[in-house]
Write a structure and sequence with these properties.
Length: 99
């Protein structure tokens, strides 16, 4: 796949619906492994099923970015994958982090 995000890891918050879901799906379609987070459990699972159904790789995480420990959760994920996070803010609460 000839894409800037192919074989990269993307963390997308607010991925349960709307713009966040669209971003997560687009990144997966382009070959990224997506960690999709949202405070809404049912919606994030639906997003994950849509991505998997289209052949993408996704991990769904119920996560509230407004919680005080949200940053430590992102740091923990960063250390698990062992790569540097480069981030881009994407409207409202959706954040896409490409590793």
């Amino acid at each position: 796949m000839n894409s800037r995000v192919a074989d990269k890891i993307a963390l997308v918050t607010g991925a349960g619906r709307g713009i966040g879901r669209a971003i997560a799906m687009a990144l997966a379609r382009e070959g990224a492994t997506v960690y999709a987070t949202d405070i809404l459990a049912a919606e994030i699972e639906e997003t994950a099923e849509l991505i998997r159904g289209a052949g993408g790789i996704v991990t769904a995480i119920v996560h509230d970015v407004l919680e005080p420990d949200a940053r430590s959760g992102v740091r923990s994920m960063r250390f698990q994958v062992g790569q540097r996070i480069v981030f881009q803010l994407i409207r409202r609460c959706s954040i896409a982090l490409i590793l």
